[in-house]
From TrEMBL, chain A:
Transmembrane segments: 57-80, 100-118, 139-159
Protein name: Succinate dehydrogenase
Taxonomic path: Bacteria, Bacillati, Actinomycetota, Actinomycetes, Kitasatosporales
Keywords associated with the record: Heme, Iron, Membrane, Metal-binding, Transmembrane, Transmembrane helix
Acyltransferase found in the keyword field: no
CDD domains according to UniProt: SQR_TypeA_SdhD_like
Organism: Streptomyces reniochalinae
GO MF terms held by the record: metal ion binding
UniProtKB/TrEMBL annotation, chain B:
UniProt catalytic activity: a menaquinone + succinate = a menaquinol + fumarate
Protein known as: Fumarate reductase iron-sulfur subunit
Organism: Streptomyces reniochalinae
Keywords, alphabetical: 2Fe-2S, 3Fe-4S, 4Fe-4S, Iron, Iron-sulfur, Metal-binding, Oxidoreductase, Tricarboxylic acid cycle
Coiled-coil segments on the chain, per record: none
Signal peptide coordinates: none
């Protein structure tokens, strides 16, 4: 063992006169680039529960419903009956007088917000490498989602057409 | 029959075949992404130019380089015939088996890029650390689980029952699919297509009794629900397994609990 080592050092000294040029050698290899969060035997085992399955299903179902809601919404608001120029306070007040449109808009608000938020959640899960970054990005997302959903719901239910 | 073959070989003549092969040789540049932690912490691209028959495979070109030009080139290969799954690598930006890719099929007029598969730690040149990959494989329990006494004869299965999971029995664990998956690139804790394919192979096997258990494992937050159906795995599979379809079947089994 010791003989091998001496020969190695002798060889190294012979081939590389300037030691400080070679940063890495057999005894001091460069660090390899490991993937972030790789699977090991200690990777957390099965988190029981169907949350991921439910969100996956929700994305599919809400997507189908949203196609109808959003395309219908765009058609009514932007195309039919004079197009975008007809939209004003009176138009909105007229629509929200009917519970049907209240429910339509409420469903659209909730489904679109949750659909988008869940999509962003998966994007964060996919791309955020550090646990801390992941956590705070998701917190920001959840707060923004809850705020928007609550504010929108409040407006739909407390809308007063006679406001001055 | 044997004599006829021998005669045929004789009549073809060594001169003839040598002439043919010499005229068939083309000049190919292989651009290989090399990494040696004992020399540098930076990977670098190195070009090798060689004369080769376009009907040879990329693996033959790598052999030629290793045996005749630069012996330090490092890569894995075992059977060299597309069965052992050792030599999956990224050739011209796509995951393939070097031993199943013919030079003529991948545009030899331009330099052919060869690099290690992505998402796993590169140890040297084209050799990656496969441990996380096989850990995911182990985690889905890729073995027959049954209860009761062992039968004295083989476990019978109808042709239809066998057909149900035939596609996923073809997997050779080369990691071409898993290392082509963008979700796996960013988060190596995702089981990856290969592990799901091998879970599928037992979940849909009528002789196996641990389907529920395996489904529960894949219901995990790093399980099948992280699949974004980008179909990279299906495109990458050198065995032609419909990987994304298999993953979707596992998803369906999880929702309907019928398999």
């Amino acid at each position: 063992m010791s003989t091998t080592e001496t020969t190695e050092t002798a060889n190294g000294a012979a081939t590389e006169p300037t030691d400080d040029v070679a940063l890495f050698d057999v005894d001091h290899p460069a660090p390899v680039i490991e993937p972030p969060r790789k699977r090991t035997a200690k990777t957390p085992k099965a988190s029981r529960g169907n949350f991921e399955m439910q969100t996956w299903l929700f994305m599919r179902l809400s997507g189908i419903v949203l196609v109808v809601l959003v395309l219908g919404h765009l058609l009514i608001q932007l195309v039919l009956d004079g197009g975008v120029s007809k939209i004003g306070f009176a138009f909105v007040a007229g629509r929200w007088a009917s519970p049907f449109w209240q429910v339509w808009d409420l469903a659209m608000l909730w489904l679109a917000m949750l659909h988008g938020a869940n999509g962003l959640r998966t994007v964060i899960n996919d791309y955020a490498e550090r646990d801390n970054t992941r956590f705070w990005l998701k917190m920001l997302l959840y707060v923004a989602t809850v705020f928007t959903v609550l504010l929108g719901t409040l407006v739909i239910f407390t809308f007063d057409p006679n406001i001055r | 029959m044997g004599t006829a073959t021998l005669e045929k070989n004789d009549s073809a003549g060594p001169v003839d075949s040598a002439e043919n092969s010499a005229s068939h040789l083309i000049t190919v540049t292989l651009r290989i992404r090399r990494f040696n932690p004992e020399v540098s912490d930076e990977p670098q691209w190195q070009d090798f130019t060689l004369e080769i028959d376009p009907k040879e495979r990329v693996l033959d070109a790598l052999h030629k380089i290793k045996w005749e030009i630069d012996g330090t080139l490092t890569f894995r290969r075992s059977c060299a015939h597309g069965i052992c799954g050792s030599d999956a690598m990224r050739i011209n930006g796509r995951n393939r088996l070097a031993c199943k890719t013919l030079i003529k099929d991948i545009g030899p007029d331009k330099p052919i890029t060869v690099e290690a598969i992505k998402g796993l730690t590169v140890l040297k040149d084209l050799v990656v650390d496969m441990d996380p990959f096989f850990q995911a494989y182990r985690d889905v329990m890729p073995f027959l689980i049954t209860s009761g006494n062992e039968p004295t004869r083989e476990r019978y299965q109808s042709a239809e029952d066998r057909e149900r999971f035939d596609d996923t029995t073809k997997c050779i664990l080369c990691a071409a699919c898993t290392s082509s998956c963008p979700v796996f690139w960013n988060d190596g804790q995702y089981f990856g297509p290969a592990a799901i394919v091998n879970a599928h192979r037992f979940i849909f096997d009528s002789r196996d009794e641990a389907g529920e258990q395996r489904l529960e494992i894949l219901n995990d937050k790093d399980g099948v629900w992280r699949c974004r159906t980008t179909f990279n795995c299906t495109d990458a599979c050198p065995r032609g397994i419909e990987v994304t379809k298999a993953i979707q079947e596992v998803k369906r089994a999880l929702i309907t609990r019928r398999f």
